[in-house]
Amino acid sequence: MITHIRMKNFKSWADSGEVKLAPLTGFFGTNSSGKSSLLQMLLLLKQSAEHSITEEILFFGDETSPVNLGNLSEVVHGHRQKGSLKLEFGGKLETPISIDYSYPDESGLIKQVSFTTDRFTFDLTIVWNRDVVAVDNIHYLLKSGDDEYKAQVDINSKKIQGDPLRAKSMNLPKNQLSFEFENLFSHVYYLGPTRVHPQRLYHWQGTHPKKIDQSGSEAIDAVLSAGVRKLKSSNREDATLIEDRISEWLQKMDLAHSFRVIPTSSLDDQNYEVRLQKSPSSAEVTLADIGYGLADVLPMLVYCYYVEEGSTLILEQPGIHLHPKVQSELADFFIEVVDERKLQILVESHSEHLLTRLQRRIAEKQIPEENVALYFCRNNDGASTIEKLEVDGESGDIKNWPENFFGDVMGDMFAMTDKQVETIAETEPEG
């Protein structure tokens, strides 16, 4: 799990400060307030860790990557000619790692250090001055109780080359830390705001998707893959297929009564149809014949049940095409998968309905208050700021509700009331 993020001079963020992440974290705010940039930092690190060219410390992306940020000059805050770029995140390991190493102290005596920890912080700092770019700092910070141990990454060149994820450490067992870094980001998945258009037929060649496409194009492959694997399993807990859970939530969201993926008449052509019923008595139709909202939410439901337990799922504008009722139900869905599958859900949204349902569930104790972190982002004169929303654990109220959080709703209501009073006064006879 990712425990916190921080960035300096990254896009609209001069300094985000330490932003603590919970199992369920929501980022809200106006357009271009910096919400997406907070998550893009994680996607930048993920695609850098997975990039095949190991000489590049940061892979800013291309048309096939989760995020395409162009280059360093486009990423730095204010497009400044010189300064430093800092990217930092904290991680909590599923399995604690044991550290045992020795180092010479100031007097030259060899010191021995041994400890076990399940937390680390990764910090990358890059400095630049016009066309000269250098790595200023790359280190892991490991915590054991109140003590901190820094693993400085040793790179021979001062240019942006030499993979920090695979370079040798000065003191600590870098290979082990590198593995933990890469393992963490291999379980980070991203679903963007634009979903693939629903198809009438889906062609599946029996593959088992290991990565998730940001548009949801592999959602049906994932359903079929999960079904095959679970049917072969002897574990009775795996007896319920992914289709059943999806059907349950589609019913709760009032989007469909049933959901199934079936082969076409010929098994040899490897084509499948997604068949749905809107109600118990209605005819089955294909996914291509039903509203776009259902096709929009389907990849979210699939991936939350398909990814490995303990994964981190980044969802950008998950309710953008959904009815307010469905947006509210999404909050309940997220709460369930966070609890049952130990997922970490990071959501960037404008949905008042999703937020209100989260507030209600906190008050109802359906999710521990400490398992939710909610933030509001602003952008003033090109610089982003972030404020943690203080939710009352008893009432669910937000104590520091930002001005015009979701627009001036109350102002509109008062204006309508004034207009109604004015209209009545104009139509009533005098005297």
Individual helix count: 9
- Calculate Rg over CA atoms: 25 Å
How many β-strand stretches?
Answer: 17
State the shape.
globular
Q: What is the arithmetic mean of pLDDT?
A: 81
Low-confidence stretches: 154-172, 231-240
Characterize the largest beta sheet: strand count, sense, and whether it forms a barrel: 7 strands, antiparallel
Description:
It is a single chain. The protein is an alpha+beta fold and 431 residues long. Helices cover 28% and strands 30% of the residues. The protein has 9 helices and 17 strands. The strands form 3 sheets. Strands 1, 2, 3, 5, 6, 7 and 8 form a 7-stranded antiparallel β-sheet that branches. A 6-stranded mixed β-sheet has the order 9-14-15-4-16-17, sandwiched between helices. The protein is globular, with a radius of gyration of 25 Å.
Please supply descriptive tags for the structure shown above.
single chain, 28% helix, 17 strands, alpha+beta, globular, 6-stranded mixed beta sheet, 431 residues
